[in-house]
Amino acid sequence: MLLALVLTTSACTSAISGTATPLTGNLALVNGPGTAAALDAVKTAAEAVFSYDSANPAAFDQAVAANVTGAAKDQLTKLFDTIRKSPQAVRLATRVREAAALEFTGDRVRELAVLEQENGTSKGLATVALTALKADGHWRLSDLAVNPAQPSPAPHPDDGTLAGTRDAAVAGTRAIAGGLFTTDSADADGSYARAEAVIADPLLSDYRAKKASYVEAIRKSGTKVALGPDPMAAVVVLTGGRAVVLFFTTLQVTDATGKAAGKPFTVEFDVVREGASWKATAVRPVTAA
Q1: pTM of the entire structure?
Q2: Which of 45, 47, 136, 162 has the fewest CB atoms within 10 Å of its CB?
Q3: How many domains are contained in the chain?
Q4: CATH number at residue 69
Q5: How does pLDDT run along the chain (289 residues), one tens digit per residue?
Q6: Residue 114 and residue 43: Cα distance in Å, rounded?
Q7: Is residue 176 part of a domain?
């Protein structure tokens, strides 16, 4: 699994005035072992139910029965309806390329995941939001959304705790994405300035070295680009004032004629805290291997 989780706590309680108090709220990364175990279980379930072999359709039904509950059953039925009716042979293999927890409460996890699917020589990616519930020691998918746009969990105060730093990094990443990916060909210089304001070295030095070409590319594009509603971000790794954050939005691209189109867009950011702000030191588009 292409997932690295650090800052594992030694226990799931915190000492307050000598009394062990159970942690509550969003425990994503705060309870490192629990978060990792939930993500691993969801990975296994997702890879099973997003794979399909037309030579053995019963295996798909068995995977759904074992790993899915609630609304996700109907959602998967609709997603696979066309594939199951196809007269052509289909052997779709799926693996989770990347995943990060948006929320974790112990018996419920919501995550942002990138699925890589392969059918023969054809390969593609899909970014999904997956929710899973734990019952009788087993995690089952309860809800799924492809190219998701969902509100973020209520943030923890930025109070120096792990949860606070996690949510500050998420909010900071959304601001970074707005600065980097919101562009207007009629204001190429302003678009570049907004990007420069949300990045730090080594990315900043690269942008400055290529400023002329970036500005010219924005000007020639003839488009306006904005983030879609409810862009989604989840921390993969958090080490002090640095984080790796998985980010997804459907970019809203408007051409010179006013025609608008949505473009699903998934990237991974390296971000660093500078005072009260977060800035990007690297941006990696997530593409098919």
Answers
A1: 0.89
A2: 136
A3: 2
A4: 3.10.450.230
A5: 222 222 222 222 222 233 333 456 899 999 999 999 999 999 999 999 999 999 999 999 999 999 999 999 999 999 999 999 989 999 999 999 999 999 999 999 999 999 999 998 889 999 999 999 999 999 999 999 999 999 999 999 999 999 999 999 999 999 999 999 999 999 999 999 999 999 999 999 999 999 999 999 999 999 999 999 999 999 999 999 999 999 999 999 999 999 999 999 999 999 999 999 999 999 999 987 6
A6: 10
A7: yes
244, with CB counted inside 10 A (0-12, 13-18, 19+), is buried
Three-class DSSP labels, the chain: CCCCCCCCCCCCEEEECCEEEECCCCCCCCCHHHHHHHHHHHHHHHHHHCCEECCCHHHHHHHHHHHECCHHHHHHHHHHHHHHHCCCCCEEEEEEEEEEEEEECCCEEEEEEEEEEEECCEEEEEEEEEEEEEECCEEEEEEEEECCCCCCCCCCCCCCCHHHHHHHHHHHHHHHHHHHHCEEHHHHHHHHHHHHCCECCCHHHHHHHCHHHHHHHHHHHCCEEECCCCCEEEEEEEECCEEEEEEEEEEEEECCCCCEEEEEEEEEEEEEEECCEEEEEEEEECCCC
